[in-house]
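Per-record layout

source: Parnassius apollo
name: (apollo) hypothetical protein
length: 215
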Amino acid sequence: MRVGWTTNYSVSKTVSRFLHNWIVDLVYVLKTDTVIGNFANLQEAVENGYKFGGRAGISVFFEHDPQIRDEFEIIPETRFEDTFKDVVEGKTKFVFALSLEYAWAYCLSQGINENECGHVLSDSIMTVPLVVWTKKDSPFMRPLSMWLQRFLESGLLERDTVKPVTVRASRLSSDPTPLTRKQTVSCFLFLLIGYVLCIFEFCLENLKIKFLPKN
């Protein structure tokens, strides 16, 4: 009796853990970041009365859109940090064009969670490659190599070796749009398969205990 009880308990524990993992995965897949007041793109934010701007050097990236280009507000360096602070705290309705690393580093220094550091317009993210040219025997090579390694390890910089599949997966995971009907049905289908497999395994374990001779 003790052997049978121990086996049943172990099977039940395994099934519970398996079901728990399936439910957690399902909730993660169904979870979205859609929040009332967040906009899908920059054009929508501007049309809803949000001002848009940033440092003077970044305005050239928006010359292709006359409406955004003409309304681009250049923030002087003297009040850049104060303006950004007001935006993060919700005191000002403004869309900043700036580096994500700067925003997250500032929020981290102020003890603000990354998820509460504003809404990112995913369709407007630009990837800018970084190229550093130095002479072969330059005295800056050693400190530059050291700091580049630290930046890479901290996540502030990213090597240009990301595979297309990985990039596509990261873009899909950051999409705030709700799941489609087909995606939802697929999630529940996998959940149903998990339940069936768990029940099947549970029955096999009980049959094994019932018919196989005990030591």
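summary: The chain has eight helices and three strands. The helical segments are 2-30, 42-47, 66-71, 80-88, 100-109, 141-154, 164-173, 181-211.
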